[in-house]
UniProtKB/TrEMBL annotation:
The chain crosses the membrane at residues 12-32, 38-58, 65-82, 102-121, 133-153, 159-179, 186-207, 227-244. It comes from Kribbella sindirgiensis. Keywords: Membrane, Transmembrane, Transmembrane helix. This is DUF817 domain-containing protein. It holds the Pfam family DUF817.
Length: 274
């Protein structure tokens, strides 16, 4: 019974951590089926900017978190500009805010990942142990660069991914659900987030936010290989969010207990662990 309750608590925390992605998909759905007075992508850009401002005003996100989310927005937008240019996918429809075939709102689909990480960090009280920021950042940059360079040189994502796994082999992420604290390998969390991002990508293409070449005439499931690509790209978002959490003193876990009580009567002991 306790296990079922913990699972429900975990699911609820995940849902509320996905507020920005949830509102983003609501906007995609509404803009697809409701006639708008302006171009769809222009409306989505205004909508996403408004969401970001709202999250900051109601203190769902700090100004540092908003800054890092915009940072990932720019990282994603750069990737989008390149991928559309080489024909990897396309954005149907015209818009005033469309540059080189890419609507500026597109970066918010990446920003939504950063928002999720910021929200999850707070709601799950996330901390990491044995995190190696310099090496992790180097591999995250290599992963991002490979999305560009594999157009001209062999795709190196597998050796880069293996290198990242070696770097993260002893890195754990600690999180709280209810009255208990758990841990899992950080690399596993990247894979899990990547899987759900692949599912989200399927919904996004179904709502015609963008299309792969084989989806132009009829919608098809996004190739499962994209799951791996998203898992790797999560590392870049994590590095950006971790840099903010390091400044806030909320990055590293203190203590080696895998699962600990965090109820009030044990509060002092738990604070020592953190």
């Amino acid at each position: 019974m306790f296990g079922c309750l913990q699972f429900l608590r975990f699911g609820w925390l995940e849902v509320v951590s996905c507020l920005f992605p949830g509102f983003l998909f609501a906007g995609l759905a509404i803009s697809k089926y409701v006639h708008l007075p302006i171009a769809r992508y222009d409306a989505l850009l205004i909508y996403c900017l408004g969401l970001t401002l709202l999250f900051w005003v109601v203190r769902l996100e700090t100004w540092r978190e908003v800054a890092v989310i915009f940072g990932f927005h720019l990282v994603g937008l750069g990737l989008e500009l390149f991928k559309v240019r080489v024909g990897s996918w396309q954005y149907p429809g015209d818009a005033v805010t469309k540059v080189a075939g890419v609507p500026l709102f597109a970066g918010f689909m990446y920003a939504a990942v950063g928002s999720y990480l910021c929200q999850a960090w707070r709601r799950f009280d996330l901390r990491v142990s044995n995190y190696r920021p310099v090496l992790t950042t180097i591999f995250a940059v290599l992963i991002y660069a490979n999305f560009f360079t594999h157009q001209w040189i062999p795709d190196l994502r597998i050796p880069i991914a293996l290198g990242l796994l070696v770097v993260l082999r002893r890195t754990w992420v600690f999180f709280t659900v209810g009255v208990r604290r758990y841990r899992m390998p950080l690399a596993l969390s990247f894979a899990l987030i990547g899987f759900f991002l692949w599912i989200a990508e399927n919904f996004g293409t179904f709502l015609d936010a963008w299309n792969y070449p084989d989806q132009v005439s009829v919608w098809r499931l996004v190739h499962p290989a994209k799951f791996g690509a998203w898992s790797l790209l999560v590392s870049m978002s994590f590095v950006l969010v971790a840099s903010v959490k390091s400044l806030e003193g909320r990055l590293y876990h203190r203590g080696g207990t895998a699962t600990v009580e965090t109820s009030p009567q044990h509060g002092n002991a738990n604070q020592a662990d953190r």
